[in-house]
Amino acid sequence: MKNLINFFKGMIIGIANIIPGLSGGTMAVVFDLYDDLINAISTLTKKFKENMLFLIPIGLGAGVGVLGFSKLLEFLLQNYNIPTNFFFMGLILGSAPLIYKKSTTKGINPKVIISFVIALLIIVAMKVVIPPSSGLELTRLTVTSFIILFLSGVVAAGSMIIPGISGSFVLLLLGVYYSILGAVADLNIPILIPVALGVLVGVLATSKLIDILLKKVPEITYSAILGFVLGSLVVIYPGFTFSIQGVIAVVVLIIGAAASFISSK
């Protein structure tokens, strides 16, 4: 039963990674999987069987989320943009009390506050200050495109691991989002190979660093995570209109918040 639950949580993590502005890492925090996920990846070879048994259901779910729901998500974002984004905002808001609790186990101090504020400002700056690139058209593999795609994979994967920072949004900033999305749709394997290699390196390196931070300075790390997560609300907020969609948006926001709050307890 636990593996099945983790599979469905993995699906939502995968779906979240498709949405520019939303992070799979955020959803892992929402479902209280983040610590275990980071630890399993960073100590993969030390407890290989145990870690793989934990990671496989989540990984399979994430794969199904990306491949199986990308068309549905595209439809929802195009036709029901406000309710769809409000649902994910609800998921984020519902997890905030748990993250706050983890960031203040030793009380509130200046380091915790500074960590939170810096993380929050980083996310807001990514939305407000940095315009997404118009994009590079990479359809053929060359030495230059291999390097660009590999490094983009490293940076995006590292971003996906950090709650609140969207890997898809980072790919937009780097100008390769649509090239990679097109490669996935067309199964352009030569283009996808350097991206996959970069993702592998980025995930392993970033998860190791975060695992160290969670063990050495957990309160400061979680206060930064809280800043990243709440900052992502600014990024995915679609605006609001007083209409039927607006009413539905408020309802699904409450449902999402309640679901993540209960799940994280």
From TrEMBL:
The keyword Transmembrane applies. It comes from the Bacteria. The keyword Mitochondrion does not apply. It holds the Pfam family VCA0040-like. The chain crosses the membrane at residues 12-31, 52-70, 82-100, 112-130, 142-162, 169-185, 191-210, 222-240, 246-264. Keywords: Membrane, Transmembrane, Transmembrane helix. PANTHER family: INTEGRAL MEMBRANE PROTEIN (PTHR37308), POLYPRENYL-PHOSPHATE TRANSPORTER (PTHR37308:SF1). This is Putative membrane protein. It comes from Clostridium collagenovorans DSM 3089.
